[in-house]
Amino acid sequence: MMAISANNTTPLFGEGASSTLRLVVYLVAAIALMIADRRGGWLERLRANTGVVVEPVWRLAAVPAQWARSARIALADRHELSEQNAELSRQLLLAQTRLRRVEAVQEQNQRLQELLAVQKTLGLSVQLAKVIDIDFGPYRRQTIVLDLGSDNGVKVGQPVIDARGLVGQIAEVRPHSCTVLLISDKSHAVPVRIERTGLRTIARGTGALDTLELPSIPTSADVKPGDKLVTSGLGGRFPADFPVGVIRSVGNGASGMFASAVATPDAALDRSAEVLVLHELANPVGPPAPAEEFGPPVSLKGSDEPAPPVATAPASEPEPTPVEER
Amino acid sequence: MRVRGINGLFWGGVLASLLFQLAPLPTVLLPFKPYWLALVLIYWMIEVPERVPLGLCFALGLVADLLCGEMVGEQALRLCVLCFIVVRFRSRLRFFPMWQQTLAVLALLLNDRVVYLMVHAIAGDPPPERDFWYAPAVGMFAWPWLFLLLDDLRARLRSADA
After folding, report:
1. Residue among A121, A171, A133, A130 at smallest CA distance from A148
2. Residues A111-169: pLDDT tens digits?
3. Hey, where are the domains in chain B?
């Protein structure tokens, strides 16, 4: 310090040799430090120790940059944010549309699986058909048009069902499409049986999709709302024991001689998009099998024909036999 | 009192220059960061050389090295060279008009860059990119403003004291 202040008093260009010497000393010191830093590891420890002091300085130096960054986020990015918002809502719309589509496909899948289950439980030969046109009017015949035609082997009179119940029968056949007369059409009637009591009667269409009429029930008959109607199989057009509808209400007929009931069809007449067309029945014609078989089991019955082995199940085996006998 | 005020200005300037040196910048602006510490020290060496002896330059260089995490001794060497040259030509620099002074500062900063290059070349580092040479020009343009600012502050302190 003293040397410098003394130096300062020297005249303008009077740089002494001492000044140069000091410079050389400092330069050598600096170079030695650099070499030590490069070669030896001891400066690493020094750095690690000074880190405690150095780090707050770094923090302090970083403060303005952080302020700038937060200010930019707070203010300047509004345009960017609104753009992002628009983009995101567009994507949301797309995603929702896609989701709807998936939902629709899922519903369709569900319906098709139900139909498939029906096909399996019936053990009948069926054909899946799509509804391509609907014609419901108050004064018209209630019909739907399917995408099957004579090219697909469809014939007039074949029953049409969906997953829940009877839909109708095929009334007209064209090469590539056919018209189905619904059971709710005024000109349509189905022979039915009340499942609970076994009472046979006829269910007519009324012209309203959700209503069937049972005009001639004996007044003494036991019919209650909630009774299930199934096809009786009489007439041979429809297979037996297929659900048709549920009794909604029972009242007096117009003549007073008969009671009349109103039923709701089981089939989703106004909603089905896919239906099944039943093919030729396995059992051609005939009344249904008796509900229960009385008497001794088959194995004990008669000796005029060789009895099936006792081990076979008695319930499933004899069923076709009575039909054949009659 | 006056010494205290001037002292505060000196150390405040040094601390601010170190912080500016460390302040994180976008990568694009990084090569344009001038050597603030050298600019501040040049001012004080021109105006009040007894405040900035060679030893203090050396010490400040070491502190800056530790702060910047570079090779210890590098900035010490550079600042010593700078200090020596400035003190050597101080009386002439002092009476230069501003534009000449500014050019002189550019020359000093370029010389500093050359020293830096030499040190790193000897250490075996790869040669720097072209943007290595931008900083001295920026430092040159920053010099008049820094000079006026510090001069003004020093004059205020002096007049407040008087």
Report:
1. A130
2. 888 888 777 776 667 788 888 888 766 566 788 888 888 888 888 888 898 888 899 99
3. 2-161
User: Which one-letter amino acid corresponds to residue A268?
Assistant: A
Of A31, A46, A54, the CB nearest to B77: A31
Residues A271, A275, A280: CA angle, nearest 5 degrees: 150
Q: Would you say A231 and A193 are in contact if contact means Cβ atoms under 8 Å apart? A: yes
Q: Which two tokens mark A95?
A: 């995603």
CA distances from A200 to A1, A108, A251, A319, B104 (A): 128, 36, 18, 21, 120
Distance from CA of B148 to the nearest CA of A (A): 24
With beta carbons less than 8 A apart as the criterion, state whether A147 and A275 touch.
no
Closest partner residue to A26 (CB to CB) among B20, B58, B69 is B58
- pTM for the model: 0.47
Burial (0-12, 13-18, 19+ Cβ within 10 Å), B33: middle
Helix (H) or strand (E) holding A293: none
**Does the model's ipTM exceed the 0.90 cut?**
no
Any idea which architecture A124-278 has in CATH? Beta Barrel (2.40)
DSSP tally for chain A: helices H, then strands E? 6, 12
Q: What SS3 state is found at B125? A: coil
Contact A115, A131 (CB under 8 A): no
Q: How are the residues of chain B apportioned to helix, strand and coil, as percentages rounded to the nearest 5?
A: 80, 0, 20
Mutation for A interface: B51, B70, B80, most A CBs within 10 A: B80
A28 touching B, CB under 8 A?
A: no
